[in-house]
From TrEMBL:
Subcellular compartments: Membrane
Protein name (Swiss-Prot/TrEMBL): CorA-like protein
A GO CC term assigned to this protein in UniProt: membrane
Family in the record: Belongs to the CorA metal ion transporter (MIT) (TC 1.A.35) family.
Keyword Transmembrane: yes
Principal location listed in the UniProt entry: membrane
Domain of life: Bacteria
GO molecular-function terms, A-Z: metal ion transmembrane transporter activity
Length: 313
């Protein structure tokens, strides 16, 4: 879907296809993509992976187009819909901007542009403002998403100290999977943002040191969070493994004790079953009962002794 906007004097209003300087393209309609490629002679591969979570963040100059020295800038946004899989939450956002036109490509479920206009319309004067504030909002989304993930990590840490049930192990695997996606996405994205923030022309036109500082601060904050949380998940995974090994050790101690309780009476019965002479009680009418009684008594004493031992240590 094409949405046309006109930026003028700190105002952004919806416009028509005849009078606009900001074009927002949402969705994956092949006909719309083809129209955009043909109209501006954009590279054929520009939309490949544009809706995939594995899309590569990048900053590059586009050549041989009908636009005036266009620059392509791609980031990956994080949706706030926490019920979705991480692949569905990662939404590539692409900006193609020149001095007189901005083209933005987002997924059909993205709310980034709508929220950007609602929150920062009065702060936007140039295309660089849109790019910078979008970058700021994207990193804010990552920070919020990581804060929600911290709650899951805390719950897993508590569960690892109490249980080794399959459900908790599955939750751990899912959380680690999400963290892998976020870690690689942020590391890849940081290089692109750093390159943009190092461009003197971009910074001169933006002319907003406070905004640049906020972007870099959120960038570092998000990266530190994902690094710490991934290490925490590795620690929790190790704790689950150690707890399972410990429980297995306790079980083996219990089984060994049970085997010992059975083995002692068996030993006594075995000794009296030797087919040789001289065994006490051989000619006694109640000899068998005495042997059984002795075996049971020794077995009970062994069980009492072992039951008083603490196998949890």
């Amino acid at each position: 879907m094409f949405q046309y906007y006109k930026m003028d004097d700190r105002k952004i209003r919806e416009s028509s296809g005849e009078d606009y300087n900001w074009l927002v393209v949402s969705g994956t309609d092949p006909e719309e993509q083809r129209h955009l490629l043909d109209k501006y002679q954009l590279p054929e591969d520009i939309f490949i992976g544009a809706n995939e979570p594995e899309e590569v963040s990048r900053l590059e100059y586009l050549r041989n187009t009908k636009l005036n020295h266009p620059i392509l800038y791609t980031l990956i946004d994080l949706s706030e819909v926490t019920q979705d899989r991480i692949e569905d939450r990662l939404e590539p956002v692409t900006f193609i901007y020149t001095k007189d036109l901005l083209i933005t490509y987002v997924s059909h479920q993205s709310t980034l542009i709508k929220r950007l206009i609602e929150k920062h319309e009065q702060d936007i004067q140039r295309y660089e403002d849109i790019v910078a504030y979008s970058t700021l909002m994207i990193y804010t989304h990552y920070i919020k998403g990581l804060q929600e993930m911290k709650k899951q990590i805390d719950a897993l840490d508590e569960a690892a100290r109490k249980t080794t049930e399959n459900n908790e192990l599955f939750n751990l695997a899912d959380t680690e999977r999400d963290m892998v996606y976020l870690d690689h996405t942020l590391r890849d994205q940081n290089h692109t943002v750093d390159r943009l923030m190092d461009r003197k022309e971009f910074l001169d036109r933006l002319d907003n040191e406070a905004l640049v500082y906020d972007i870099k601060l959120r960038q570092k904050f998000a990266m530190k969070m994902v690094t710490i949380y991934r290490d925490l998940l590795e620690t929790i995974g190790g704790l689950f493994s150690d707890m399972m090994d410990n429980n297995l050790n306790h079980l083996m101690k219990y089984l060994d004790s049970a085997a010992l309780v059975v083995a002692v009476p068996s030993l006594i019965a075995g000794l009296w079953g030797i087919n040789t002479g001289g065994l006490p009680g051989k000619d006694n009418a109640i000899g068998t009962i005495i042997v059984f009684g002795l075996a049971i008594l020794v077995g009970i004493l062994t069980a009492i002794y072992l039951s008083r031992k603490d196998f949890s240590k």
